[in-house]
Every structure is written in C-alpha cells, then in structure tokens.
Design a protein that fits this description.
11 strands, mainly beta
Length: 119
Amino acid sequence: QVQLVESGGGLVQAGGSLRLSCAASGSTFGIKDMGWYRQAPGKQRELVAVVTSGGSTNYDDSVKGRFTISRDNAKNTVYLQMNSLKPEDTAVYYCNAQRSILSHESDYWGQGTQVTVSS
C-alpha cells in the first residue's frame, strides 16, 4: 500500500500563490506517474497536472503558464506551485500516484487539501 499525505492548501486572494506538497510513504517501489487533480463543488474531479518518474509533465490548459508540477524522487514527493491564482481554481486538490509492479497497476489518492481563492 501507498499512503499519500498532502499539505499546503489554504485561503488566498486572487493573483496570489500557493504551493502544495504530497509525500508518498509505504510501498513506494514502482511508483510511476504522480499528479494533482481537483474537484470543485458540483463538478467532476479533473486532472490538473501530472509528472512522470522521468520528469515529463502535462498540464490542463486552464493552468498552463500558471502552475508548475515538480517531483523529488528521492523523497517520493510531488509539488504543485500555483501562481496567479483565480477564483475558478477554488477546489479540493487531490494527490494521485500510479504504481506498476509486474504489470499490475494500482492507483492511490491522498485525502485532499482545500484551496480557496477569493476575488
């Protein structure tokens, strides 16, 4: 099993910045992609950004140029630097890790951290 613990959420004014962290622990061998998703009230959970174990990144169009995902493989930690925040970024942000061992893939989620952007 993999445990994911997020931190760094909070309340910020529009135009401000926040940095989210997600530390993985437990059976971390075989973790491949790590990413951030978010879910706003009344909406489906959506991908924000993902980073592979090799460092390749992918972003949702709505956050390109404002958010940066990074990863420290030695610490099994993924970060999301969020700049120029907008009220529409308000959501619960979830960390995700995908693990693959002998072609068996597993998906793990953190408990979520609230990000609220005031106008």
